[in-house]
Structure formats: structure tokens, C-alpha cells
Amino acid sequence: MTGDQTPQPAGGSGPPPESGAGYTALGYLIGGLAVWGFIGWLVDQWLDTGGLATGIGFLLGGAGGVYLVIRRLGTPS
To answer: For the chain, which residues make up each domain, given as ranges?
Structure first.
């Protein structure tokens, strides 16, 4: 019957947004910072660079996390 159809949302026919997209993005960012920050800390302990490698590790982890968020979830439209 025609009256039993669910209304379609206005704005486009694309797939609905992923339900856990925010948690996915947060996980990529925190994971990148944690992993690369830890690797930088290990390099600091090994080479005794006074925190320089840890800072570089955090920067690389943050940049990698942002890259993964953009690649996985796409750019906002």
C-alpha cells in the first residue's frame, strides 16, 4: 500500500553516515599519538635525546591519525 512507505530523508540518496564514525576517528587519533609517542620515547631512552624524539613521535602520530581519519571517513561534504 502506498501509505505504508517510510519517508525518505531529504538531501541525498547516499548511504547514511556510519554510526560509530566519531569513535573511529577518536581511536585513530589517540592510537596514532600513543603508538608513535611511545616509539619516540623508546628512541629517547636509547639515544638520550632529551625528549626530542618523543615530540617528533607525537607529531608523526597526530599527522598519521588525521591522515587515517580523512582516508577512512572521507572529507565532509
So the answer is: 21-77
